[in-house]
Hints:
This protein is of the alpha/beta class.
Amino acid sequence: MIRIAGDIPPQSSWREWIRSKADERAVAEGCWFDIRAANRVKEFFEELLCHSSGEWAGKPFVLIDWQWREVIAPLYGWRRADGTRRFRRGYIEIPKKNGKSTLCSGLSLYHLVADGEQGAQVFCAAADRIQAGIVYDEAAHMVEASPELAAHLELIRSQKRIVYQEAASVFRALAADAGRNEGLKTSFLIFDELHAQKSRALWDSLRWGGASREQPLMLAITTAGWDRTSICYEQYLYGKGVLAGHIEDSSYFAYIAEAEESDDWNDEKTWFKANPSLGHTIKLESFRDDYREAKQSTASENAFRRYRLNQWTEQDVRWLNMDKWAECADEYDEASLEGMPCYAGLDLATTMDVSAFVLVFRMDDGSYRILPYFWAPAEANKMRERMNKSRVDHWMREGYIKTSPGDQIDYGMVRNDIMELSRRFDIRKIAKDRWNSAQIGQELSAEGFEILDMGQGIASMSAPAKEFERLIHAGLLRHNNNPVLNWMAGNVSVEVDGGGNIKPSKKKSSDKIDGVVSAIMGVALQMQEPAESGIQEIKWA
């Protein structure tokens, strides 16, 4: 095995490393702290590894204080009664640019050559080949920069492998291809950017790979995500539970650097709290630049909170500021709007989910009022459960979503309800998605409604979507606090092109957004009058 030089101090008092209820429980189980074991990892980094890029390129890998005190020392210093490592699995969550990938690379090389494991199998797993290759490439650069390591290790870049022939050990990058990753005898596994895993297949296929090893270690190191049904969020909650003492698992390591929901994201103290490397791998001035950009739009704020403050967001790129949305709530009586002219948007979902129709009224003071209506088949919740989506049956029971029997929406009921609404409100025009409503459009047109097909692409949606957002921020779009529409407003993510144009994205949004899309189409009709009646198509210059 590769030798590590240096003076290792004698065993010192390890009471300072008892920091949680989990640590107290571990001591009661016979665990103890070995500073020699922790220092061995530290000295491996400082004596054999160098940074390969940035301002520290070519300089020894000296651990930042948090890397040593919060990760390396506790992770490798804690021992079981039999002398093996206490921890078998772990979850480390830190924001981007805090040195996560380089730390992963260094740990992978340590386990390959210096952990004392003959025939070690070390893996870095990720959602795709590019991400898995980041840790491998950094490790390869470290090997090339170290004469000691380069003399013992063989790089096979075409296969993303590093081989240590003397110990019959190998380090390899793995992408999310669970079918080809069975049967591994893992001694050490880094799961990089776990939040990006689209399913838990790779995780489950690798989870038990170290069963035959004496002290295997599996670490997930990631930035916060947004999908609260994912394996990453599952591990996040598990780690939080271990740290809080709610979950009794002394073999599970957790370190989470994040801004709490109650923290002020505008305060620089919060930035430092969530970013242990701020001032080291991240320049404070560049952080301030990102903050100033985040103040300009909700989408940028959402990204800042997730990538810079490590907060789990509600979806990938949330569009609407929900505080502003809440301020627009105005529980006005529908009867007060009867007889008034209005425009409407109709967004029909698949036959098995929620559809929406929203009336948009323009008031004399320039503000807007919106009235939403929703329909779904009675069996919709069974389908939503199969898709791992939230149930909506409570809104069905309360009457916010009108239901039809069976597992398919009754479009005839939707048509009849719209006709009934037209007897109460002066519906001037209805905009609809042209791809999913041809029959009902023809039927409503035959009943005398002026129907316009509206494309759902950026060209058609950007201008009214931006106007919709502007009205919310100005407090001019008043809604009646309908819980279904509130839920949909919180789900919306947007796609943005190179010119800054936007459109609500059903693919990227966390769940249903049809009510918001319908409202935007109603706003679009307020913005542009079509030249002719009949079923026309809304076009924007």
